[in-house]
Write a structure and sequence with these properties.
Helices cover 83% and strands 0% of the residues. With 209 residues, it is mostly helical. It folds into two domains: 138 residues, no CATH class; 69 residues.
Length: 209
Amino acid sequence: MQNKKTSLREIAALFIRLGLTAFGGPAAHIAMMQKEVVDKRQWMDHQHFMDLIGATNLIPGPNSTEMAIHIGHERAGWKGLLVAGCCFIVPAVVITGFIAWLYQLYGQLPQVKPFVYGIKPAIIAIILSAVYPLGRKALKNTELGLIGLLALIASLAGMNEIVVTHTLAKGVRGRWAGEVYLEKEYLGSLFRSVDRTRRTTCDQLVDER
């Protein structure tokens, strides 16, 4: 991982390119950022990137934009924050406005409708291909996979994401606390047993004398 600060020019170049080419919504955007920032440039390790994703999911606003801002701040302070955020948002705003203008003019034409319907499965394929590697790295063991599955089911059932995150985190924290308590009890019992053995041995030596 690179510890030195990144130049504003490099940050701007990356996020302008992502702003122009990242289609598929926040999930696909974040997966592309992970590939660029973690795998290719090594600006941060994977765990720190996942921590930032967790933070962005707990605050209001578009997650991918928040991730761009976080990454910019991590690499170049408040200037990097502004540069990364603007370079990622502005190209997307311009492209979205242009596409909306075209759709308003030509979206209802019979010749255009098949193209509009064909975009949907293509976008779904882009999202799945981008998100799958990120999800595979996040689910490090069976327990995390089960937690992710429960969170998915709760979200599909309509539960608020903050409630889902808080409930699952509380359960994991409770399990961890239970494990720590059992470990302390085990160690305490072990130390008491060693102490009893030591005292018994000393008493036997005294009696032999």
